[in-house]
Structure formats: structure tokens, C-alpha cells
Amino acid sequence: VCIYMLPTIPSLVFIDAATGKVVCRNGLLVVRDDPKGLEFPWGPKPFAEVVAGPLLRNNRQTTDSSTLEGSYVGVYFSAHWCPPCRSLTRVLVESYRKVKESGHKFEIVFVSADRSEDSFTQYFSEMPWLAVPYTDEARRSRLNRLYGIQGIPTLILLDTEGHMITRQGRVEVLNDPECRLFPWHPRPVLELSESNAVQLHEGPCLVLFVDAEEEGELEPAKELIQPIAEKIMAKYKAKDEETPLLFFVAGEDDMSDSLRDYTNLPEAAPLLTILDMSARAKYVKDVEEITPAVVEQFVSDFLAEKLKPEPI
């Protein structure tokens, strides 16, 4: 049995019965936009096909989407009415400038979720990049469907061939203000912080809690689980599927304490856990010594649905 965790209800997910792969997570948008099923089976299409058409600049000039070819592209889902969006936009303007100045071919396409064209126009006037015309609601909706957008702000990063690099552009921009790690390829293991904690809600996450307070003390923990994380990422990338598990290490700080309190975890360290916030479930491996073999077996049992969840 394959269970798809849903962030809200009602939700409608289309699955290819032959392969078990998710065809479309935003089924409600699909049936709204294509009530006669003319685009059935509603599978994912290339970004270049979905975005095809004129794009706006804030000086009211237009350019064709074909000008994006050969560039890294950020697809920015945002709206003026959303305070976190406005905060991110201010940072993103600087990041956009720095990436362009570094010599990378980079463009951003704003996909508005504003509630009126006037709001869109006002908000877009602050942006130096491109936008899908507000009046082209069908194209905006198709882009939302393509990436399964569930909330804003969301920044999707695409490589020069239109393939997704990361859904976590927002986190990457905030964590790397100098854009030294652009184009922000996913790192196998992250150090839990306030800025990336939002990713705990993206799906199941392995979190290894360790006794570390000083900078650099988390490195041994990262090195312990990194080969396993890399193996999982490579396996699912080869199948053109999203990684089913994110990997974190957490030391002793306020962020870790808050997470332990919220999920009702013991104070032990080291402590190996898998947290699935959307399912409000946790899996805990409380052993004296955590070795690569222990982690690998824990991950394998989770993916095979052999572990019994505890409620969060």
C-alpha cells in the first residue's frame, strides 16, 4: 500500500497505475482548468512548454519565453498581500543582482497569486525580472499545477535545461545571501536552523540529534549519515522521482529544543528520529551508539513501511 501524505483536504492526486508514480498532485486545479479532460492524462510537461508565451518586464515591454533557453531560471510564486513574500522579494532582488553580476545566465519568472491586477502591477514594479501576465490566468494556473504549489512564497530553481534543481529556493536565498552556492543544488545533509526548519513540513525528515553546541561539532554527525543520504538521493534521482526523505543533524540550541518539545522527543543524545509532520507521526531509534549500519537499517525499514509510528 502506498500512502500519499496530503497537506490539506480536499486534495486530489492522480497516479499512474502502471508505475505507481504521482502524475499530478494538484488534481483540484486540473479538473477546474480542464473540466472536459482535453489534456488528459494530465502528466507533467516540460517547463518550456508550460511557460510558453509572452513575458512581461516592469517597464511594460514584453519578451518571449524562448529567451529563457540556456539560463538558470527561478520560478517565483508570490503575492503582495503576503508579508513573508514581500520580505523574501527584498532579499531576492539583491540575490538576483549578485548572481547576474557573477556572470551566470539567470532569470526569474514571477507567477502572481495577487488578488487584483492593480496589486500585481504595484508589486511587480519592485521586481527587476520577468512575469507571466496577470491576465493569463490559465498559464499561471498551469505553472502552479506543474510544481504542485501548496503555499507562498515558493521559489523553484531550474537548471539550464529546465529540470528542477530545488524546490527550496526560498531557504537557499535566505541562507546564502552572497549567493556563493548558486545554483543551490540540494545538499545531502543539512544542519537544522531557523531558516531551514520550514523544510521539516515538506515531507518525512530524518533528524539526528547530537550533543553539540559549538560551530563545527556537527561535522562528525553529518559525515556519519552523508553517505546514506547521498545513496538515497542518487537512487531516486535515477528514477526521476523526488527523494522520499530529507536528512538533518541537530545540535543543542533553541531550535532543537523547540523541535524536541513540539514532537515530545526524549532528551537523549545521540537520538535518531524520522519526523513526518504532515502525518503527525514520529519514529525513534534510541540506542547508545549510532553507526552507519544502524542509520541505514532504520532508513531501509522506514521506506519499507516496517516501522510503527508514534503520534506527535
UniProtKB/TrEMBL annotation:
Recorded GO terms, molecular function? thioredoxin-disulfide reductase (NADPH) activity
EC assignment: the record states: 1.8.1.8
Q: Which GO terms describe its biological process?
A: negative regulation of protein ubiquitination; negative regulation of Wnt signaling pathway
Q: Record's InterPro entries?
A: Thioredoxin-like_fold, Thioredoxin-like_sf, Thioredoxin_domain, TryX_NRX_thioredoxin_dom
Q: Which reaction does it catalyse?
A: [protein]-dithiol + NAD(+) = [protein]-disulfide + NADH + H(+); [protein]-dithiol + NADP(+) = [protein]-disulfide + NADPH + H(+)
What region holds the Thioredoxin domain?
Answer: 3-203
Source superkingdom: Eukaryota
Its GO CC terms are: nucleus
Tell me its family: Belongs to the nucleoredoxin family.
Name used for this protein in its record = Nucleoredoxin
Q: Write down the species.
A: Pygocentrus nattereri
Give the gene name: NXN
